[in-house]
Amino acid sequence: SEQTNEWRHSEIKSWSWSWDHLQEMAPLQRAAMSATLLLLAAALMNAGGVTGQGTSGAPPTSQATVQIDQQKTDYRTSVLKDGTVRIEMNSTPSTGYMWVIKSMGSGLEKKSSDFIPPSTQMPGAGGKQVFVLDAKSVGTQVVDLAYRRSWEKEDAYQAKVEIDVTAP
After folding, report:
1. Do residue 67 and residue 147 come from a single domain?
2. What range(s) does the Proteinase inhibitor I42 chagasin domain occupy (predicted)?
3. What is the β-pairing status of strands 127-135 and 108-116?
4. Is position 55 within any domain?
5. Do 71 and 38 belong together in one domain?
6. DSSP 3-state of 142
7. Based on the domain organization, do 160 and 89 belong to the same domain?
8. d(CA 69, CA 127)
9. How far apart are CA 100 and CA 89, in angstroms?
10. pLDDT (tens digit, 9 = 90+) per residue, 76-113?
11. Domain that residue 88 falls in
12. 56 lies in some domain
């Protein structure tokens, strides 16, 4: 219809005016505008809680869960003192690989270590290995983990979990 064509024409005209206006800006102005937009985007990401896996961005609670996905090596979470942290990792013990805690902050205590088998009992199917830790002292506590075979010298994968323990 004629109204639709007028609308399209005005939209194209306004878009091309914006593009032309941007092209007329001095290079320094364009650079300043780009920098401003990048800073704004970064601020919005931080304010919106865009965080890595295992990082809630919310105030600490008495329980936290970190899922190690082998896509990265550093994880972070927070928990209140006397709270628990559950660290979950995919594991395939039938291949000889298991997760081990190589070192752990003195303000943490290992409460349990479990393996949850896969729902299907196929040979080579992986399950989930879980460490549950109690947070006993305030401060940043670090857990170094390794996915390895006990008879091999090299770790197949390593991960570090930083746990910010705060007073209730």
Report:
1. yes
2. 81-161
3. antiparallel
4. no
5. no
6. strand
7. yes
8. 13
9. 11
10. 999 999 999 999 999 998 899 999 999 999 999 999 99
11. 61-166
12. no
